[in-house]
Amino acid sequence: MTANHRVAILLHQGIKGTHGKTGLAYLRYGKSAIAAVIDADCGGQSLKEVTGIAKNIPIVSNVQEALAYNPDVLLIGIAPSGGILPDAWLEEVKQGVRAGLSVVNGLHTPLNPYFDRLQPQQWIWDIRQEPSGLSIGLAKARSLSCQRILTVGTDMSVGKMSTSLECHKAAQKRGIKSKFLGTGQGGIMIAGEGIALDAIRVDFAAGAVEKMVLEAANDYDVLWIEGQGSLLHPGSTATLPLIRGSQPTVLILVHRAGQTHIQHAPHVAIPPLPEVIELYEQVAKVGGATDTVNVKAIALNTFHLDTQDAQKAIDKVQQMTGLPCTDVIRFDSDRFLDSVT
């Protein structure tokens, strides 16, 4: 997608729910103009009031209402359980296609099979596809001269993509030759390219990351690699191939302030942050690394706190870890950039 597209984001029950991360991220960082946001539960409400995103974009209740704002692309910004659209929402997608809209789909279920007759200007982008020509990882990225900065987390959905994007944006402002590498559906939608790591067979996951990093390395001085999952999460397999494939030079640890247990596995505790830092550094220094790989800073997600409590949480983490810490979305990320580049 380009800046010339006008996008309607399908976010049913995702603005206030738990499965709208992809659409909300595109609202913050996407290149295309946003014509409307679609959410039956929030139609007619203020986007700024319900999301904190200060953009004057209407929220409508369905695709039919969104058509009045002249979009040309329908972006599915939700991730329902199992990656399958409920029948009623699928009918809305079909309605959009009949009206001439193209579709960006980040779900595990491809939508191309539903549409065999598209207009010449229409397309369906099913993002979660395994790239061709993959092989196993062989630690080739360790020989690159560019910096490779990987975000890692204490849990899923704590802000790894946002941290990478904010740092990339700050680096570009300084004139640094910087590139963001997307590894999930949201990051790929924003960057326009990348690998859908959770669609790649596990044997080739590290190789896919390695291939992406090697292809970008010659043209950039800093690569910001979007993190996925967490080594602490019992259901996550994505973080290890990201470490193996990218051979990072620096790690940024991302954590939600005050979180003590894995969100969807409350019986699994998050160790104290110094122990988490040691874990990531130990894992990163084996499997091909030639140098010690350090966590250089902590990106703290303080979205649920007011400004005063957010600053207290940041100060507490800095004292606990001895590392620079901030919320890169809420506060200035310029000093934070100095600590990791």
Automatic annotation (TrEMBL):
InterPro entries: DgcN-like, DgcN-like_C, DgcN-like_N, P-loop_NTPase. It holds the Pfam family DUF1611_N. SUPFAM superfamilies: P-loop containing nucleoside triphosphate hydrolases. Residues 42-129 form the D-glutamate N-acetyltransferase-like N-terminal domain. Residues 137-336 form the D-glutamate N-acetyltransferase-like C-terminal domain. This is DUF1611 domain-containing protein. It comes from Crocosphaera chwakensis CCY0110.
